[in-house]
Specification:
elongated; signal
Length: about 100
Amino acid sequence: MAGRQYSSLLLVFSLLFIVAFSGVAEASTSGKLRPSECKPRCTYRCSATSHKKPCMFFCLKCCATCLCVPPGTYGNKQMCPCYNNWKTQQGSPKCP
């Protein structure tokens, strides 16, 4: 009896662990955002710049195409390859 209760308890904790950490893995994977999630992510991404309007414009455009916004207010573009590799005609990064 005690072994069966232990197995059930272990199963419950394992499932909780998987559910809790599946969101962490999903957040770091590129291309997983819904279009409705772009504005809050871009608002945070552009919060540290003094050029908010152009930053938001390009961030929203990039997010709509790539469905990914890198974490943080600067850098970390390697987390979103599409966002990182999209360039202007001059070869500079399109996405902030």
